[in-house]
Every structure is written in structure tokens, then in C-alpha cells.
Amino acid sequence: MADIVSMKQKQDTDALVVAQKYDGILRLSLNNPPANALSVALMEALLRNLEEARDDAETRVIIIASLAKVFSAGHDLKELQRHRSEDDRGRAFFDKTMRLCAKLMQTIVALPKPVIAEIDGIATAAGCQLVASCDLAICTDTSGFATPGVNIGLFCSTPMVALSRATHRKQAMEMLLTGETIDASTAKEFGIVNRIVPKEYLRQVVDKYAAVIASKSPLTVKIGKEAFYRQAEMSLEDAYDYTARVMVENMMARDAEEGISAFIDKRKPEWKGE
């Protein structure tokens, strides 16, 4: 059950990312209080877990959540500042940090399994980028979102990539230029989150979404997620040409044959993932 944590998981509660597996779901909880800053160590830990999940047949859906009061305040500014004393004034470390962050966000998008962000609290800068990079996002009614880099002389250029793909341009620019925090309702209006729920129901609602997705053919979900992001960058003509070919290949899959047969026979399909 979702509320049962194994002995190994209890021993790992000091980890920067706490992993919990149940019912085809992998819950990855950020654990870097108080602000869940995306330090290099945390990003590396999250990336390792995501890469392991890619090849884990038992994992069908991934949830990224938080064990702190803040979902994530973005990059660890103190960590970044410490490297200014180096001969290159921190350039090499800054480059490492931003490239690692870019790899993390692209891994989420490219992952053949859906990733759901579960937000309770504030998600700012790269934390907001993390939310916008996930396939789905569900938050509490007291959550807030911002790209406040402009307030400290550091424009949120990398968060802008995910934000501008999740929202309309003018909405993204509003957040990027003002640096102000928007509430959950505005974030839903902008397209950053899918749903807003009361705090006491957040885990229940997110787990329900994950369980519904986990019940589908893993092959079909993989095909669909990849096709969604690829066609979104194409012209209308190219998108239809590409997705027509995807549909044909999907039709040739055993799971499609089984799913259609089960629908006609009015029975529950048995997915093989092939």
C-alpha cells in the first residue's frame, strides 16, 4: 500500500531524494530542507533515480514530491556563491550546475514514463522549472510559483525554457520580467499545473492519477509521450505525417491488438508491454 515504507526506505530517509515504490509507482521526494534547493548533489541524486526508473519494468509512473515545506526554491545560491573565490570566479562550477540542470529537465521530458509533480508550497526559479518540465502537475491551494531571478540580477533563462513551453508567451514573460509570485489559481490559468486540491487530499489525488496511468499499457504510454513532445515542435503538416506513422506502428503492437480485442469483447485487457 502507498503508506507502507520498507525498512530500506526508512534507512534512506536522510538521503537528498527519498525513493518509495508501490503499485507500479515510484515516488521521489526531495529532501533538502528547509528550501529543497537544487544543489548539484540533489540534482545528481534525482537524475540517478530517474535514469534507474527508465529501465525498471516495475515502474510505470513517477511522482516528484517534497518532504520539506517548500517544493523547491531553485538552485542553491549559497553553493554557487562559494565558488566565486576560485580563479575563474566560479565559471566552471556555474557551467556544471546549469548543464546538469538542463540534463535533468530534458531527462524528465525524454523519459518513456509519465512524471507527475506534486507541489505543496513554493516552487520558484529552477523549482518552478522542475514543475513545468513534468508531464502533469498537481498542487495545493496554498502553493505559489515564481521565476524571481530578475530580482537578484540573474534572469531565469533556463527556467524560461520549460516555462515558455508550458504557458503562453506573454504569461511566461510576465513571470520572468516581474519576478512576482503567482498563486495556485493563476498557475492553473497559465497552464503550469493541472489541478488544485486541498492540502489534506494532495497525496490521495496524485496517487489516483498515477494509479490510473499505471493501469494503461506501458508501451502505449511510452509511444504517446514521445510522440506528444516530438510533434509539438513540428509544422502542422509534418506533425500529421509523423503521428500517422506512429499510429500505424502502434497498431502493430501486441498491446494494441489486445486492447482493441478486449474493448470489443467487453473485458479487461492484459498488457504485455509489447
From TrEMBL:
One term of GO molecular function: hydro-lyase activity
UniProt KW keywords: Fatty acid metabolism, Lipid metabolism, Lyase, Transit peptide
Pfam families reported for this sequence: ECH_1
GO biological process: fatty acid metabolic process
Function: May play a role in fatty acid biosynthesis and insulin sensitivity.
Family: Belongs to the enoyl-CoA hydratase/isomerase family.
NCBIfam families named in the record: PRK08139.1
PANTHER family (UniProt xref): ENOYL-COA HYDRATASE DOMAIN-CONTAINING PROTEIN 3, MITOCHONDRIAL, PTHR43602
Protein name: Enoyl-CoA hydratase domain-containing protein 3, mitochondrial
Organism: Georhizobium profundi
